[in-house]
Design a protein that fits this description.
152 residues; alpha/beta; 2 domains; five-stranded mixed β-sheet; 40% helix; globular
């Protein structure tokens, strides 16, 4: 199961929930609500991810906006850089990211590849106004990747 804990929960999540999660993917605000750790840099993201892994998740992906994402699994820790774009509206960027990650995982990509794909989907979404209108279609994602020479 994938959990995007948005909006930030007002209190702790049930402890037994974490054992059922393949991946939890909070943004910086949600990660702070879940762990008490303010995310200012990759070191903070690492500490928050460790906290969530210790709760029983198999993987943690912390969305860092224009700084990309931080991925932590049982065997790996890594920052995944964002895709640079001229942002117009960040409404639903996290939703676009979460959807992109879920699609990529469903297609059989590993977590790191899914996060790279999700970064592209999120990047495209912030170049448009609104929530639903900003969600890119698959063909747009594929074209964006080809035109920019992005390796997924």
């Amino acid at each position: 199961m994938i959990l995007d804990p948005a909006p930030a929960p007002p209190g702790p999540l049930p402890e037994d929930l974490f054992q059922y999660l393949f991946v939890i993917n909070p943004n910086e605000v949600e990660a702070r609500a879940l762990t008490g750790i303010s995310i200012r840099d990759e070191s903070d993201a690492r500490r928050a991810a460790e906290h969530l892994l210790n709760q029983g998740c198999r993987a943690v992906v912390i969305k860092l906006g224009e700084k990309g994402a931080y991925v932590a699994t049982d065997g790996a820790r890594a920052g995944v850089p964002a895709v640079a774009v001229d942002a117009i509206d960040t409404t639903a960027a996290g939703d676009a990211f979460a959807a992109g990650m879920a699609v990529a995982l469903a297609e059989g990509r590993g977590l790191a590849g899914a996060v790279r794909f999700a970064n592209v989907v999120g990047a495209i979404s912030v170049t448009r106004m609104g929530a639903q209108p900003s969600m890119p279609r698959r063909g747009e994602v594929d074209k964006f990747v080809r035109e920019r020479g992005i390796m997924l």
